[in-house]
Specification:
47% of the residues lie in helices and 10% in strands. The protein has 21 helices and 12 strands. The strands form 5 sheets. Strands 1-2-3 form a 3-stranded parallel β-sheet. Strands 4-5-8 form a 3-stranded antiparallel β-sheet. The radius of gyration is 33 Å and the shape is elongated. The chain binds one RNA strand through helix 4, strand 5, strand 7, strand 8 and helix 7.
Length: 498
RNA sequence: GGCGCUAUGGUGCAACGGUUAGCACGCGGCCCUUUCAAGGCCGAAAUACGGGUUCGAUUCCCGUUAGCGCUACCA
């Protein structure tokens, strides 16, 4: 390597035709991991040359998606719509050099798939080749002048060599080569003056000095065209790395009908960005061993293009949820707290003191609850009884644990006993409860389960006595007393039925 | 249709000529237990098919099949 070693530069280049979907997110992540690992630069480029489909208002959503994902770019965003002169200039240069020619065919006409099909098959290759070669490529200067006079606005097509092969290196798929005879004379500049993807992507990747192009494998087949453009422009192509696609459970390309496909929807659902990154990283990549739970820093340490697979992967939602629970359960509590805080804020349950004077209490509560959460929303969902007194009694929980008619008097005694406790801690709550149960001659479980429903309204909750400590004496006693009438009704209804 | 890519349990990945084919998710069972989780243990489950090459193929080659991609004046 020379002193002036070529700097590693990668890019993520979405087009604003939709939100940031999981496939794009994975591509962005791989670029980011690679840049971080190798000490390179990542830039963001918005490919908005298709004025028809381009929705400028979607750009913000894509940026938000990337920010949530934690993929931060070092340069950009650049917008191709603001760089049109460069593409035109490049096309003119290729025209002047003979690598391209003006085409006067009406839009989308000379080699449509339909036309080829109608010709039938079994014919000699020459026929097909004729389809791939645009008739305009052989027009004389005079003929072109005549067309110009007619006022037909010309497109500019690349003059693809009719023989030979085009080769390139792919870090994932290896050495590739295709017969030039199989490549059509593709359009560089539309008759409207707008560049096509093939042109703008190459011009920008050259201008932005991209060293590695990491993108979806759907671009693999078009890469030879781009290599042709690089050559025509007198530039060596960069290293390509095509990553396999992400498919839906039915093995077709992930799309809206597979449900949630935007990263935004996963953010809203309560996934942690780091869990999402971990999951995404393992779709089409592995560190070469059985390691799965990897913090982002470990991902960066281990990432390499050599570990990228060539097989399409199916997006497996249950596994994503598993990763999320792993992070929810195992993250150092201090790292998790900010996420819970914003979750509670958006649910309108947040109390400022939990961030200051009662921070230790808040951390304790979260730590108690988290072993049985899967999504951030669980903290403002079923666990809301820990953060607010406003919760409902679940009918199923009542039906299951408020069956015994001795319960109302037993619970009243328990409330009194708890109220009289001088010390409020786990063991005191434990022995008090067990003593009441013993005095009544019932199994402790009966009372414990019923009490849980009284103070949290549900059957699913952390261990009772720990919960009591977190919720606090006044609230616990209050909640038990408040539940008494409801229990009476429940047991009475039961007696009626029998 | 043409061209190309891919092919390990249901899913995601390991094994890059020699393993009883490994791990994880999911699934089933057991244990633990104060509900529900978590956790621990056990289990069912795969090299698409057919030919080669080789002492030996999941691994290398060919064919078949299947899936996917490209085949736009979309990106």
């Amino acid at each position: 390597m020379s002193a002036e070693q070529k700097k590693l530069r990668v890019r993520f280049a979405p087009s604003p035709t939709g939100y940031l979907h999981v496939g794009g997110a994975r591509t962005a992540l791989f670029n980011w991991l690679f840049a971080r690992r190798e000490g390179g630069t990542m830039l963001l480029r918005i490919e908005d040359t298709d004025i028809e489909r381009n929705r400028p208002e979607l750009v913000e959503g894509i940026l938000d998606g990337l920010k949530w994902l934690g993929v931060q770019w070092d340069e950009g965003p650049y917008f191709q719509s603001q760089r049109l002169e460069m593409y035109t200039a490049a096309a003119k240069r290729m025209l002047a050099g003979g690598a391209a020619f003006t085409c006067y065919c009406k839009a989308a006409s000379y080699a449509g798939a339909d036309a080829v099909e109608q010709e039938g098959e079994g014919d000699d290759e020459g026929k097909v080749q004729k389809k791939l070669a645009c008739p305009c490529r052989d027009l004389s200067a005079g003929e072109r002048a005549a067309k110009e006079k007619e006022g037909t606005p010309p497109a500019i097509r690349f003059r693809v060599p009719r023989e030979g092969v085009t080769k390139f290196e792919d870090a994932v798929f290896g050495s590739r080569e295709v017969q030039n005879a199989e490549i059509e004379d593709f359009v560089l500049l539309r008759s409207t003056g707008q560049p096509t993807y093939q042109l703008s992507v190459v011009v920008d990747d050259i201008d932005m000095r991209i060293s590695h192009i990491i993108r979806g494998a759907d671009h693999l087949s078009n890469t030879p065209k781009q290599v042709l453009i690089y050559r025509a422009l007198g530039v060596d192509p960069p290293i390509f790395a095509h990553v396999p696609l992400i498919l839906g459970p039915d093995r077709t390309r992930l799309s809206k009908r597979h449900g949630a496909t935007s990263v935004g929807s996963y953010a809203e659902e309560g996934f942690l960005p780091e869990a999402f990154r971990n999951f995404l990283a393992l779709l089409g990549w592995s560190p070469g061993n059985d390691m799965e739970y990897m913090r982002t820093s470990e991902l960066v340490e281990r990432f390499s293009l050599a570990g990228v697979s060539r097989t399409n992967a199916i997006f497996d939602r249950p596994k994503l949820e598993w990763f999320n629970t792993e992070y929810l359960h195992n993250l150092p509590i201090e790292e998790l707290l900010p996420y819970i805080e914003s979750q509670l804020k958006s649910a309108g349950l947040w109390q400022e003191r939990w961030g200051s004077t009662d921070r230790a209490w808040f951390a304790h509560a979260v730590d108690l609850i988290r072993p049985r959460t899967r999504l951030l929303g669980d903290f403002s969902g079923w666990a809301r009884g820990f953060f607010t007194d406003d919760f409902e009694y679940e009918p199923e929980a009542c039906a299951k644990f408020w069956k015994d008619e001795r319960l109302p008097s037993m619970l009243a005694k328990l409330a009194d006993a708890l109220d009289a406790l001088p010390e409020w801690n786990h063991d005191a709550c434990d022995s008090t409860s067990r003593n009441v149960a013993a005095a009544e001659g019932v199994k402790a479980g009966l009372l414990i389960n019923a009490t849980r429903v009284c103070i949290l309204g549900r059957a699913v909750a952390p261990p009772l006595f720990e919960s009591m400590v977190v919720i606090g004496k006044d609230r616990v006693v209050g909640r038990i007393r408040r539940a008494l009438p409801a229990i009476g009704k429940q047991t009475a209804a039961r007696v009626d039925r029998s």
